[in-house]
Structures
1.
Amino acid sequence: MIPSGFWGGRVANLLSRQITGNEPPSSYVDFIARMRRFVESKGVTWAIPVAKDGSVSKAADWDLRMLTGSHSRFASRTNGFAIDSKVREEALQSGWATAHLPEGQALSHDVQEFIKAVIACRCRQQIVPRSVRHEASIWRTFFSLVNKAPWELNSDDFNRFMALKEWSEKVVVGISILANEINENLLSRNVPVGTAVRIKAAKRLQSNLDERRDSKKLPDKKSLHELVRIVFQENPVGHHDRIRFYALRLLLFLRGYG
């Protein structure tokens, strides 16, 4: 008899792999282990208790500022691992077979571990926490339409997702980022994956940049005000941060008198 709850899910995953021989490649296992070590080196607990519906309490969720050294006033978190029921319903209405879709309310344990590892990887690259939070929400949507282990993903999975509807530019970029991480870290048996979506994202970005002129190339006022607040009010962490803060203060002064 398989136990219920969190450990029951892990036991079921293990038994399923033993029966099907669906073991992840060593590069995948190593990536998860490296990202776990990174997270724990920042004083953050790797395990995130997830409710049956995929939700996570704020107290148990990661604060992505701790993984990036961010000075943001507000915390950005993973926001749980719930299946996107709305997009799942859209897929069913479009004629998708239920076999292509995960069951239940929460993403599988393997997918949760994978998303956590990619979040950690992005944080280690010093990506702004709120951007990583948004990317993670896109990856949850993607896996709400994929019923397989992350290391079994292929380009067909990405193409099927992209063909469901006309996605926003942010979604296209987020999916492209996911494909890039999978390819660069050899996280699937079927790399390279997502070639079409990566090309689409690159074309959209170039088109967007070509359309911008003069001041439109600059960050919006809200982002600029937040930058000013950080470099003049927050305490830099370490010597390198201090140098960056002073350099940005000087640039802001010069810009103000320019």
2.
Amino acid sequence: MYLTWVVHSNEALEEDSWAIIEINDNRFRLQEKTQRCIFITINLNTFKKSEEVQPLSSIAAIRAKSSQ
């Protein structure tokens, strides 16, 4: 089973620094980063996947730069 949470924030990739999240009285330890959903690379007008896999490629580059 997979859970999806939507979090609103003003800081890009803020979730990369989270170790624990708490919802009500329940604490969740985050074990690893997951890949971003591939659906954001699909053009909703043509239903074709971006050949450059954008914006995932840009997100990956930003994450790599911020982890150095």
3.
Amino acid sequence: MGPDLDTLATALYVRIDDLLAENPHWAPERPVVGFAPKLSDAELVTLAVISALLGYDNESQFVRYAKAHLGPWFPYLPNRDGYNKRLRRSGEMIARVMGWLARECESWHDDVWLVDSTPVECGRSRETQKRSDLAGWAQYGYCASHSRWFWGLRLHLVATPAGLPIAFALAGAKADERDVCADMIDAARIARPGQTLIAGKGYRSAAFEADLNNAGITLLRPATRTEAPRPGAKLLRPLRQIIESIIQTLKGHLTHRRSTPRPRGGSPAYHDQCTQPRVASSTSSIVRHGPCAGPRISSVL
């Protein structure tokens, strides 16, 4: 690792270890009697973030890299199967850690959010769609930006203009963007008065906007051809470019566009396992470089 990544990984491990010590209920359930894992939960999350920051989307390759280069930092490194099983069982823990790190960044308190979704293609052949474990979750959907149909999921993201992930969800390609956005805000309990949510035309809905208003959130979106001009129209074009830039950056960081579809398409747990560490790495990077207050990672660095 380079000096910057080494420093980030060290500070990240220390903060995660403290968080898990303060919140032991975050850890996956384990038998009362048995051997303690040789790789701690804090080390596991740190490894997952490092793999995402280094751009590895193949666990076997990353485990080989870790055993060759990360030995001084991690006394014990599992094989590929052990690493995979630990990640699959630690999805909720990684999500909790990610949420806590995001809340420690000043950008979390930004009164402007951006929301959008992007396709996650999971397969193209009919045989893949029949055999995939994603059958029933993945669906056929239309991607307007590429003017084509695809089979898979959509990654929904709420982020700040600085690129800090606030909430995310993987849903079927046909899932209504407005319903998914409302569910993300409710599930994460992030609604707060005075917040502005910037979205595209696809989020047009009187009921959706009324629900946001009841929660104290103002929806800012472009007007359709049949509507009267809406407030903030002059700001939408540059802010729309910010939304697209954040989405494209995160798509590259999540490696969804570069990944090769697997024969069975992967299971829902597999896709959560792939997504959560990479969104956590985005959060860690922003916390590392963004201004924070209190016992934050950036203060450790």
4.
Amino acid sequence: MTKARVMESPTVTTIADDIRTPERLSRALRAERRSQGLTQAETARRAGVSPQWLCEFETGRAAGGTDRVMRVLDVLGLSIALHPRPVTLADRVLHDATQMP
């Protein structure tokens, strides 16, 4: 009988956490693009989006386009991981305020 091979989970480095808004996602992608030394023009070309759209997205002015966001993530070698968001002080205060009679 052979032993089952146990594969270790790869270490995941968090680039940005607790992303709850499109603006936070935009800032995180912009920071990662810059850290990789890519220009907006090069990133846009490789992702198949216009440089104008990427500029607007990074500054929080683009009107959505999940498909485009996913292509930019692909160019940067990133993915979105979902996990339970951390409970913040604001969450606790809101919860306590709604529990009062």
